[in-house]
Write a structure and sequence with these properties.
mainly alpha
Length: 181
């Protein structure tokens, strides 16, 4: 166990993104180059995911997202400690999170206390975020949740039963009607 064992939550998230090899690379690593590589790869994956997954956006927003991530990646090159790398990752992710919501608040230089009142956190001044779900996505989400609850084999058997009914309902609606999650 070393001083970087405290980052288990971060290591677990990186493993979710890139697989168990990433976990083992970071597990007890004190190597700044290993940490820098995975943090940079994480930021690049976020940028690629945004470009691939977000279908409707204005050009100012995507430019701001790209600039934020690129600034984070550029900052990584200059740093000398793992804690500094993680601080850049955290700061970049905070910025990206707020940009995903609508905008990053800019209160630099203000000595006014900012409270957690709704009026201080309405970030719709420039854009409104809308999350849409196609019928295919709805079915995919239902399938995933159901599989976790009843297991793969039971789900396959239930789906086979559904297909034999020749129902015009979607699989998820048929299951809901049958009280099958």
């Amino acid at each position: 166990m070393n001083e970087y064992s405290k980052y288990i939550f971060l290591k677990s998230a990186v493993e979710d993104l890139f697989g168990s090899r990433a976990w083992y690379d970071l597990k007890e690593s004190k190597s700044i180059s290993v940490w820098r590589r995975y943090i940079e790869k994480t930021l690049k994956a976020i940028m690629l995911s945004i470009h691939t997954s977000v279908k409707y956006y204005d050009s100012d927003w995507i430019d701001e997202v790209d600039e934020t991530i690129e600034r984070g990646i550029d900052s990584l090159k200059k740093l000398k400690t793992i804690d500094e790398l993680i601080a850049v990752l955290a700061g970049t992710l905070i910025n990206i999170s707020f940009l995903q919501i609508g905008l990053m608040p800019s209160r630099k230089g203000s000595d006014k206390k900012v409270t957690l009142r709704k009026s201080n956190w309405d970030l719709t001044r420039f854009r409104t975020v809308i999350y849409l779900q196609s019928s295919e996505q709805l079915e995919s989400l239902f399938w995933s949740k159901q599989q976790k609850i009843i297991g793969s084999q039971n789900q396959i058997e239930l789906y086979d039963k559904f297909r034999k009914t020749n129902s015009r309902l979607s699989y998820s609606n048929w299951c809901k009607k049958q009280n099958k999650t």
